[in-house]
Amino acid sequence: MKIISNKLVFIMFFVIIGGFLFVDHSPAQTPGNAVPAPSNVRGAQYPQITPDSRAIFRIKAPEAQKVQLDLAKKYDMVKDSEGVWQVTTDSLTEGFHYYSLIIDGVAVADPASETFYGMGRMASGIEVPFAGDDYYAVKDVPHGEIRIKRYYSTVLKEWRQFYIYTPPGYNTNINEKYPVLYILHGGGEDERGWATQGKTDLILDNLIAAKKAAPMLIVMPDGNVKASGFGENTLQLFAEELKQSLIPFVEKNYRAKTDAQNRALAGLSMGGLQTLYAGINNIDLFAYLGVFSSGWIQPMQKELADAQYVLMQKNTDTINSNLKQFWLAMGGKEDIAWNNCQLLIAKLDEMKIKYTYSEYPGGHTWPVWRNNLLNFAPLLFQ
Predict the structure, then answer these.
(1) Of 34, 89, 101, which Cα lies nearest the Cα of 64?
(2) What 8-state DSSP symbol labels residue 241?
(3) For residues 263 and 279, what is the distance between their CA atoms, to the nearest angstrom?
(4) C-alpha–C-alpha distance, residues 333 and 316, integer Å
(5) What's the whole-model pTM score?
């Protein structure tokens, strides 16, 4: 155990030192017009993106015995005579991807890239540009703000925080109240997800400027609660936190409209499960529900799902009349939640519950969820 501990300490120290000494700031030498990724730390030349959307990764680790890149799949990196490890990936889908470097068996963040809270820890992220990323580009349009607010949860008995997007004009139109979208992150993430990885503010700034979406507040809370797992107790606790603490706090401290017609709830993956549970069990609170890359997990949540379907069957008319949008979206068949979502859809069809279904290829990833927000937001509060 002492040997393993010393090795871990050495590797972590080595990587920290690498953050200062071994980030590659030298001019790019790679042929093929590869360019530094926009997610690199200031001045770092790697990772680089090629014109065909492959990524080139480099790390100087002369004492390491084995280095791999973990980016959806694992790539073995090759060391040159100067101790620089390098690998070129397959062509990547557009948008944001988490990744890690595995140095002698220990997964660490790349010192050359920005880090993000995802996968249950701080991880590196790479942004792959594409022709359609104009919808979250920084443009010469009025911009809203993302603010961080602390509040005390009377349900969880602890201090928490959320991120909130206020639209352009919020500071000057002081007599205007706004509808609210509460949007939830996935498992292994927190309230930073939609604000940082999701580029929520830029997507809404551009939609509002183009008059494609109504000006709205967007609340991005921490969906992690004290209970663990995906059982009903956990979902119920989050629903109570949402209903008894978060929503009342937002409506007291921001110029938010306070009726169901001006509230929406949406979430991705774990947040989609929370949306399903909190939305259907509080159908009087929200007129819009968005479930991204989700569906009751089978067979783990079978009993919970069956109980929810019984509840939905009893309240079919109310659900259909109260919900102006029940929007389900998937990242295509490669999305890990695909089968669960198809089972959910089959049940909704059987119960004759109205919904809208959307697909955008890309799997269970942030490029898909950014696109989901792009298409869901214009349907709200019209």
Answers:
(1) 101
(2) I
(3) 11
(4) 28
(5) 0.89
CB 285 within 8 A of CB 244: no
Degrees to nearest 5, angle at CA 369 with 332 and 311: 80
Within 10 A of 328 (CB to CB), how many other CB atoms are there? 23
Token readout for 214 is 């109504």
User: For 247-259, what is each residue's pLDDT tens digit?
Assistant: 999 999 999 999 9
From residue 141, alpha-carbon distances to 2, 213, 282, 372 in Å are 58, 14, 37, 22
Nearest residue to 326 (alpha-carbon basis) of 294, 360, 298, 304: 294
Domains and their CATH numbers in the chain = 2-129 (2.60.40.10), 135-379 (3.40.50.1820)
Average pLDDT value for residue range 111-116: 95
Structure tokens at 155: 């349900």
Burial class (CB in 10 A: 0-12, 13-18, 19+), 183: buried
The shares of helix, strand and coil residues in the chain, as percent rounded to the nearest 5, are 30, 25, 40
Type of residue numbered 307:
A
SS (H, E, C) 55-94: EEEEEECCCCCCEEEEECEEEECEECCCCEEEEECCCCCC
β-pair partners for 59: 85
Among residues 255, 84, 104, 54, the alpha carbon closest in space to that of 169 is found at 255
Q: Strands, DSSP E only, in the chain?
A: 35-36, 48-49, 55-60, 67-71, 73-76, 78-79, 84-88, 95-103, 106-108, 115-118, 121-128, 145-153, 158-166, 180-184, 217-221, 263-268, 288-292, 325-330, 356-359
pLDDT in tens, 39-66: 999 999 999 999 999 999 999 999 999 9
Are β-strands 217-221 and 180-184 bridged in parallel, bridged antiparallel, or unpaired?
Answer: parallel
d(C-alpha 304, C-alpha 239), whole Å = 15
